[in-house]
Amino acid sequence: MNKVILFGKTHDELKTVCLDLGLPSYSALQIADWLYKKHVSSVQEMTNLSKKSRKLLDEKYEVGTTSFSKVMESADGTKKYLFPTLQNKFIEAAYIPETKRKTLCLSTQIGCRMACIFCMTGKQGFQGNLTAGEIINQFVSIPERDQITNLVYMGMGEPLDNLKEVMKSLEILTSGYGFGMSPRRITVSTIGIVPAMREFLNRSNCHLAVSLHSPFEHERKHLMPVEKANPLVKVIDELKSFNFGKQRRISFEYILFKGMNDTPRHMQELVRILDGLHCRINLIRFHAVPGVELESSENITIERFKAELNKKGIFTSVRQSRGEDIYAACGMLSTRNLVRTP
After folding, report:
1. 13 part of the active site
2. Can you give the pTM of this predicted structure?
3. Which of 7, 106, 163, 218 can bridge 133 by disulfide, Cβ–Cβ 3.0-4.6 Å?
4. What topology does CATH give the domain 4-62?
5. Which residue in the list 18, 105, 119, 330 is annotated as catalytic?
């Protein structure tokens, strides 16, 4: 009989486990402490539970954390970790060290159903959602775990297409019974699924990053089919109606493609549609993807685009390219290993 995995269960779910086994309700907090603060790998290590309680728990449940199967390290210090999943597929997490912060980029799905033409993960198609435990496992199972200052949900998959498990993972990461991280240290990315985005904004205090990539409907529809069901105008309207407060941040991700979305006309339209929304724009150089003819804009164009947006009052920065020598584009390493797996 396959045992049920405990790692990734919320406090309420652990209380249900205890109720089903006839354990005291306070045991749920004890189990959470072992899972998320003391990082045990087996039920038998939960020594403040009675032997009888551990025996009952061990008969049906296991901790369920897993180690990575491969790591690649870039010359710039970036690392990509490959993890096997419950579905016998692969996902990846990227560790990005900088002087003042150490960021881990998490995956939320195996593949992706959004089919953005510039994304390697999308070329895998959708193969399954990760559980909350599989999402957080990427964080706890790397050697740099205790150095991580920031988490970004910007790896494989569309986080808000796996809303239930993503919200559970955020609860565990930010709650007192879990890892106690500040939500200001966590950013969740989306291409703009309006109903799920609304729920995320109302239920979480984490930052939001929206993949934009073109302010014009026909261009964005070509790059990102999601534009058909969730037009950018509706995404922007939803964001403008929400009170982000002084500390919560909304940002837009904008990959610059040579000759496609990097002209003064695009800059001017960005200024127009974002008027009245306190936000920032992160410009991103395109990492080449096999079979995709798009090219990254030249550095001089990127710097000019950045300068003009800043002049217009929209704080804009250029995200530094990292890990280009280790299959940097999201999904490339997992796709490579997926192809090799019988």
Report:
1. no
2. 0.94
3. 7
4. DNA polymerase; domain 1 (1.10.150)
5. 330
d(CA 276, CA 271): 10
Pairing of strands 79-84, 90-97: antiparallel
- At residue 153, φ and ψ (nearest 5 deg) are -90, 75
Quick: pLDDT tens for 79-137.
999 999 978 899 999 999 999 999 999 999 999 999 999 998 988 899 999 999 999 99
Q: Which one of 18, 92, 158, 279 is the catalytic residue?
A: 92
- Cα(57)–Cα(245) distance, rounded to whole angstroms? 44
Surface-to-core class of residue 229, CB atoms within 10 Å of its CB (0-12 exposed, 13-18 middle, 19+ buried): exposed
Residue 342's pLDDT is what? 46
Joined tokens for residue 94? 């990227």
Among the four given CATH numbers 3.30.70.330, 3.40.50.150, 3.20.20.70, 3.40.190.10, the one describing domain 70-340? 3.20.20.70
CA atoms within 13 A of residue 239's CA, in its CB half-sphere? 25
Residue 92 among the catalytic residues: yes
Measured CA to CA, the distance from residue 175 to residue 173 in angstroms comes to 6
